[in-house]
Write a structure and sequence with these properties.
about 190 residues; mainly alpha; three-stranded parallel sheet; 8 helices; 3 strands
Length: about 190
């Protein structure tokens, strides 16, 4: 964060939220990333301003492809410090509707950004270990990190469920064996969440 605070680095973050359909699509992710990146750089802001002007000062909405090209231009601008793009909870992006699916569109964008091979671009994608996501991402990164089967994460889930069971007014009145059954079942079936 010292780099970002000194103005040397840029961070753009997007959280895919299964409860909010606006937070599940490339169409909404792209403008968010563009705005965040342009806020930290005059030259990136100029790039976004050109996109705005080219689309009748915002009257026309640019296509996903056009916004993707704008993002690539921003990332490739010279004299930019390190840029970090964080895509959180990609597994909450739907994988079942449309061709390509909303998740596939995001994965294609990540693939395109990695293919740029920009030395100052760093991409972090978080997700549960969904098969389609792993299949695409495994060949894109030399540094995958999986917390899915880590004992620390599992213990955090057990601790959280235990605290809820023992602090909830209704569950506190349950028999000890029922509380233990709930803790054991939820912790085992949490699947890393």
């Amino acid at each position: 964060m010292k780099l970002r605070d000194s103005g040397s680095a840029s961070i753009a973050y997007f959280y895919f939220d299964f409860r909010d359909t606006d937070k599940q699509r490339l169409r909404n992710m792209l403008p968010s990333l563009l705005i965040q990146l342009s806020a930290r750089s005059d030259s990136r802001c100029d790039t976004l301003s050109r996109l705005y002007s080219d689309h009748d000062s915002g009257v026309q909405k640019p296509s996903d492809r056009t916004m993707t090209q704008c993002l690539k231009k921003m990332l490739a601008l010279p004299l930019q410090g390190p840029t970090y793009i964080i895509l959180d909870a990609l597994d909450e992006c739907p994988n079942n509707s449309g061709i390509p699916s909303p998740r596939k569109e995001v994965l294609q964008l990540v693939d395109e950004l990695v293919d740029l091979r920009l030395p100052n671009l760093h991409i972090c994608v978080t997700s549960r270990p969904e098969i389609d996501i792993q299949a695409i991402l495994q060949h894109l990164t030399p540094h995958p990190v999986s917390l899915h089967d880590e004992t620390g994460q599992k213990q955090d889930i057990v601790d959280y469920v235990t605290s809820i069971v023992h602090s909830d007014d209704t569950m506190r009145k349950w028999r000890d064996e029922d509380k233990e059954l709930v803790i054991k079942t939820l912790s085992e079936k949490a699947d890393g969440m």
